[in-house]
């Protein structure tokens, strides 16, 4: 092998005169590098690929780029597993990295669709396992002639399993997704064990034990089929519905016993909280960044399930229910679904704890399933869910703590007093973040009719850091857990189709987003006294654009009136009475980005 490499190196040297190789070769390398740079720029990571992936990717058979292996001056391997990558991959990512043989993106927090990998005929090993990829498995994967390993487990993929039939395929895993339909009847697919397909609620047919419903027979009622836990590799969350081994059962009994005993302690703590901290005043600090501090550098091998608390990210499993109970806490919010507390743990870490009011009829399984799904979501514009607790009396959701104010406070607190006006640029920045977070939810939870369900200005937390404003959505994903008679308690209850008794869908979230936009533009809170904000704005704007609707704090920024009009138009579009006429969130994100680009161009 060494000799071979040496020969290859010599060959290359002689093939590359001073001018640097033939035009075609250069072109090829150029495209390859471009693809990698594009990839680099669409991802972010603690490891900072940005400063590392510079210069040429390959020096003969060596690479100075993190995670890249080269052979013959071509990139043949990309191993970027477990380095906390976030972002999404361009759909044509790596299409010019023609010699690529192995690709490993496992154990990150990537979202969006899988790239098609079209034309990468040398690919043998591909892993996207344990991320948050959504959408369907690209049909192009079926045409990769040398594929030997395909690992897609533990994502949020939906749609059907394509008919893979590569004889080369030796390892295949699509478990823990949201795939549906029957498993293709190809000899290759039929050759894998059921664990390769497990934990996809809607997937059926051999090798799974669950037969597909035939056209004649009525499909089995959904309540009969157990909802498998979404949980990750170890399946430590709850006993797998199909294969319950004694290994998973025993800790569960222990946990149940512990939950019962802990419940009593709970009641005491929360009574105490209620009465002792009623008047606690929040110190408003704008500067520092809390969410990263909470991340402890402690051992990664800790179990995910710490006494009574289910952790969604095992790296954050650094405290247990007792720690939480003995933390110092203060009430930071009260909403229709329950109260939220800020809890400072003994270790100094700070978390936000939401105590849900009784949700009648919600089973532990439903709750755990939903929390596991929500806990997998990671986006810079969403507040992360760290863990949760379920007992008959108490349902707690533990979030990352965001030090800052809600958009509601930022817009309406201290009006008239010594108030720092919220400039237009900041407002635009904030709504862009909200739109992105919501678009992400819509993309990642296609099986949910209303993925957020409770979008309003008090559920948008704002981090203010060196002139920039970062929005983080919270309180998302509860609609799914509430009986429909309780939906009016959520923000989506304001959507006109709700009062007409129609089924709510994604567009109800879009309506709520429109209301938040109007609130940001006009400075008027939707609801609370203000009868029909969209109607009022429409009336004023109808024939001739009028600045009368603008919040007094931004009227003076005349050069931005054009942008304010554009955003008002989006808001009115989002609050159309007919859900079908409202735009999708991805359209909205695009338009807001265009507005921001042109406005920063002017400055
Ligand atoms: C990139 O990171 C790797 C591993 O940390 C290091 O060996 C390499 O020198 C770095 N390359 C550059 C160009 O900084
Ligand atoms: C990807 O990396 C993981 C380690 O995070 C490893 O377990 C897995 O086998 C690798 N898969 C491939 C296809 O290289
Ligand atoms: C699957 O294919 C085999 C061979 O082509 C056939 O014998 C079998 O009946 C098929 N099974 C189903 C369920 O379609
Ligand atoms: C597939 O992945 C899941 C989750 O990591 C694992 O439990 C299962 O054993 C794997 N099955 C196969 C066939 O690799």
CATH superfamily of the largest domain: Transferase(Phosphotransferase) domain 1
CATH topology of the largest domain: Transferase(Phosphotransferase), domain 1
| Gyration radius, rounded | 26 Å
How many distinct folded domains? 3
Shape assignment: globular
The percentage helix is 25-40%
CATH architecture of the largest domain: Orthogonal Bundle
**Helix/strand class:** alpha/beta
Termini Cα gap: 58 Å
- Work out the helix count: 15
**Could you tell me the strand content as a percent range?**
15-25%
Which stretches of 5+ consecutive residues score pLDDT under 50? Answer: 1-26, 216-258, 260-304
Taking strands numbered 1, 2, ... along the chain, how are they ordered across the largest sheet? 1-4-6-8-10-12-13
* Overall pLDDT metric: 77
Bound molecules: 2-acetamido-2-deoxy-beta-D-glucopyranose
The count of strands amounts to 23
Largest sheet: 7 strands, mixed
**Top CATH class of the largest domain:** Mainly Alpha
Keywords for this structure?
16% strand; Leucine-rich repeat, LRR (right-handed beta-alpha superhelix); seven-stranded mixed beta sheet; 603 residues; 31% helix; binds 2-acetamido-2-deoxy-beta-D-glucopyranose; disordered N terminus; 3 domains; seven-stranded antiparallel beta sheet; ATP binding; Transferase(Phosphotransferase), domain 1; 15 helices; Phosphorylase Kinase, domain 1; alpha/beta
Provide an overview of this structure:
This is Protein kinase domain-containing protein. GO terms for molecular function: ATP binding; protein serine/threonine kinase activity. InterPro entries: Kinase-like_dom_sf (IPR011009), LRR_dom_sf (IPR032675), PRK1-6/SRF4-like (IPR046959), Prot_kinase_dom (IPR000719), Ser-Thr/Tyr_kinase_cat_dom (IPR001245). With 603 residues, the protein is of the alpha/beta class. It has three domains: 186 residues, Alpha-Beta Horseshoe (Leucine-rich repeat, LRR (right-handed beta-alpha superhelix)); 109 residues, 2-Layer Sandwich (Phosphorylase Kinase, domain 1), CATH 3.30.200.20; 198 residues, Orthogonal Bundle (Transferase(Phosphotransferase), domain 1). Helix 9 packs antiparallel against helix 11, helix 9 runs antiparallel to helix 15 and helix 11 packs antiparallel against helix 14. The chain is built from 15 helices and 23 strands. The N terminus is likely disordered. The termini are far apart. Strands 1-4-6-8-10-12-13 form a seven-stranded mixed sheet. The radius of gyration is 26 Å and the shape is globular. Bound molecules: 2-acetamido-2-deoxy-beta-D-glucopyranose (4 copies). The site of one 2-acetamido-2-deoxy-beta-D-glucopyranose has 10 residues, from loops.
């Amino acid at each position: 092998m060494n000799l071979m490499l040496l020969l290859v190196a010599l060959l290359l040297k002689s093939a590359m005169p001073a001018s640097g190789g033939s035009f075609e070769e250069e072109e090829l390398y150029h495209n390859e590098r471009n693809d990698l740079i594009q990839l680099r720029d669409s991802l972010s990571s603690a490891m900072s690929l940005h400063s590392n992936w510079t210069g040429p990717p390959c020096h003969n058979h060596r690479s100075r780029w993190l995670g890249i292996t080269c052979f013959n001056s071509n990139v043949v391997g990309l191993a970027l597993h477990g380095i906390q990558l976030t972002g999404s991959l361009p759909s044509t990512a790596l299409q010019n990295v023609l010699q690529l043989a192995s690709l490993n993106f496992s154990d990150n927090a990537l979202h969006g669709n899988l790239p098609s990998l079209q034309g990468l005929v040398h690919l043998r090993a591909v892993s996207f396992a344990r991320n948050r990829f959504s959408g369907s498995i690209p049909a192009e994967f079926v045409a990769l002639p040398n594929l030997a390993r395909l690992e897609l487990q533990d994502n949020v993929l939906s749609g059907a399993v394509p008919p893979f039939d590569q004889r080369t395929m030796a390892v295949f895993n699509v478990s823990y997704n949201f795939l549906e339909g029957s498993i293709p009847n190809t000899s290759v697919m039929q050759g894998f064990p059921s664990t390769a397909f497990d934990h996809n609620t809607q997937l059926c047919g051999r090798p799974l034990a669950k037969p597909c419903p035939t056209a004649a027979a009525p499909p089995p009622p959904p309540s009969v089929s157990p909802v498998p836990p979404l949980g990750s590799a170890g399946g430590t969350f709850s006993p797998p519905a199909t294969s319950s081994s004694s290994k998973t059962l025993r800790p569960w009994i222990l946990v149940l016993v512990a939950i019962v005993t802990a419940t009593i302690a709970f009641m005491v703590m929360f009574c105490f909280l209620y009465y002792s901290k009623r008047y606690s005043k929040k110190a408003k600090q704008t500067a520092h960044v809390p969410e990263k501090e909470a991340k402890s550098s402690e051992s990664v091998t800790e179990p995910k399930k710490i006494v009574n608390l289910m952790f969604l990210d095992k790296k954050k499993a650094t405290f247990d229910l007792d720690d939480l109970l003995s933390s110092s806490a203060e009430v930071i919010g009260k909403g229709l679904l329950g109260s939220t507390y800020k809890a400072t743990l003994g270790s100094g870490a700070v978390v936000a704890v939401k105590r849900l009011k009784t949700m009648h009829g919600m089973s532990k399984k439903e709750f755990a399933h939903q929390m596991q799904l929500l806990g997998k979501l990671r986006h810079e514009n969403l507040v992360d869910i760290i863990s949760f607790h379920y007992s008959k009396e108490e349902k707690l959701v533990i979030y990352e703590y965001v030090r800052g104010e809600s958009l509601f406070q930022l817009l309406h607190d201290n009006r008239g007093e010594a108030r720092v006006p919220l400039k237009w640029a900041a407002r635009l920045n904030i709504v862009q973040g909200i739109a992105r977070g919501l678009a992400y939810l819509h993309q990642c939870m296609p099986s949910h009719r209303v993925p957020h369900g409770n979008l309003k200005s008090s559920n948008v937390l704002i981090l203010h850091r060196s002139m920039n404003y970062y929005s983080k959505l919270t309180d998302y994903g509860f609609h799914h857990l509430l009986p429909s008679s309780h939906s009016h308690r959520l923000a989506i209850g304001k959507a006109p189709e709700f009062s007409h008794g129609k089924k709510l869908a994604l567009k109800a979230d879009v309506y709520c987003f429109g209301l938040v936009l109007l609130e940001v533009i006009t400075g008027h809170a939707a609801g609370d006294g203000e009868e029909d904000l969209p109607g009022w704005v429409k009336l004023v704007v109808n024939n001739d654009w009028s600045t009368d609707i603008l919040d007094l704090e931004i009227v003076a920024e005349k050069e931005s009136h054009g942008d304010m009009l554009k955003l008002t138009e989006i808001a009115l579009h989002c609050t159309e009475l007919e859900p079908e006429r409202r735009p999708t969130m991805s359209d909205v994100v695009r338009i807001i980005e265009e507005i921001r680009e042109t406005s920063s161009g002017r400055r």
